[in-house]
């Protein structure tokens, strides 16, 4: 067999390739570790502890209504009733309101609170309604008791219109509150000789005549205080004052001061104001 040079070269190359593939080559692998930088936070500065808790003092202010406010509140509550009675029975609303304020202590008196009796109307013969007993001119006298204050206002109107001794009052003009105040005393409605002056004082101090004008549909201008009405002053209560001391100082009575200012009890407060009528002792 004739072997050519070309064939021999191919055989040698193939043999060398086989030897190379059969040998095991050792490969070294180097694992590179990533360099990691660890950041450590700086320790914060610690300052002295500061208290941020604030204590808020809650102040509760108690407002004690003045005695004059009690009268004003009474007027607001019952002015409509007084005007309604004037429309029906021709009794001045100013007189009805003033009597209600005076007789009931601005709605704070026992008869008003427990019996809805705002005018001190006694039982008298023939009364079959509710009753309450109260010390007045005599001990434990019988007074009428009503379910509601509006019944007291209506009974007051009937009391005046149905009794002959009050008939002369209805000859007066409906807005003549001064004539009505004196006429009530003359007819025996009250035993207090200063009763007319007290009614007139209340009417003029609280401008009650405007309600008469409203019912009559008249223009109204406030009238000045009549010269015959006792001079009055505003007294501010100071530390140590008592109603007895104030009454004695101004030649009046505790009962008169209480009625005029709508006071039901005996307690008074420093700084409150009282209306005082000089020389009003009964």
Fraction of residues in β-strands = 5-15%
Overall radius of gyration: 50 Å
Unreliable spans are 23-29, 34-67, 225-229
Tell me the number of strands: 4
The geometry reads as elongated
**Could you name the CATH topology of the domain at 67-225?**
Lysozyme
N-to-C terminal Cα separation, in Å? 174 Å
Protein name: Peptidoglycan hydrolase
Domain LysM: 233-276
Keywords: Antimicrobial, Bacteriolytic enzyme, Hydrolase, Signal
Region (Disordered): 30-54
Descriptive notes:
- The protein is mainly alpha-helical and 282 residues long.
- It has a domain at 67-225: Lysozyme.
- Helices cover 41% and strands 7% of the residues.
- The chain has 10 helices and 4 strands, in the order ααααββααααβααβ.
- The chain has helices at residues 5-22, 67-89, 93-104, 110-115, 149-161, 177-186, 195-205, 209-216, 243-249, 254-261; strands at 130-134, 141-145, 232-236, 273-277.
- The strands form 2 sheets. Strands 1-2 form a two-stranded antiparallel sheet. Strands 3-4 form a two-stranded antiparallel ribbon.
- β1 (130-134) and β2 (141-145) form a beta hairpin.
- α2 packs across α3 (93-104), α2 crosses α5 (149-161) and α9 (243-249) packs across α10 (254-261).
- The longest helix is centred in the first third of the chain and has 23 residues, at 67-89.
């Amino acid at each position: 067999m004739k072997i050519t040079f070309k064939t021999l070269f191919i055989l040698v190359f193939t043999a060398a390739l086989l030897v190379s593939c059969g040998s095991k080559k050792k490969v070294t692998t180097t694992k590179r570790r990533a360099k990691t930088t660890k950041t450590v936070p700086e320790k914060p500065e610690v300052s002295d502890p500061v208290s941020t808790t604030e204590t808020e003092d809650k102040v509760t202010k108690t407002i004690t209504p003045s005695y004059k406010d009690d009268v004003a509140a009474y007027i607001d509550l019952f002015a409509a009733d007084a005007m309604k009675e004037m429309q029906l029975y021709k009794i001045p609303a100013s007189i009805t309101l003033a009597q209600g304020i005076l007789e009931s202590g601005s709605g704070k008196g026992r008869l008003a609170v427990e019996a809805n009796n705002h005018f001190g109307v006694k039982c008298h013969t023939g009364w079959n309604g509710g009753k309450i007993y109260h010390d007045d001119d005599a001990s434990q006298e019988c007074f009428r008791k009503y379910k509601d204050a509006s019944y007291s206002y209506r009974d007051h109107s009937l009391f005046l219109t149905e009794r002959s001794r009050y008939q002369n009052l209805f000859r007066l003009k409906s807005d003549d509150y001064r004539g009505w105040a004196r006429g009530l005393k003359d007819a025996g409605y009250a035993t207090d000789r200063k009763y007319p002056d007290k009614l007139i004082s209340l009417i003029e101090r609280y401008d009650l005549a405007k309600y008469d004008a409203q019912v009559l549909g008249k223009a109204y201008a406030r009238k000045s205080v009549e010269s015959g009405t006792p001079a009055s002053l505003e007294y501010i209560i100071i530390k140590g004052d008592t109603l007895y001391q104030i009454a004695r100082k101004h030649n009046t009575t505790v009962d008169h001061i209480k009625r005029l200012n709508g006071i039901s009890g005996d307690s008074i407060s420093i700084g409150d104001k009282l209306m005082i009528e000089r020389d009003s002792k009964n």
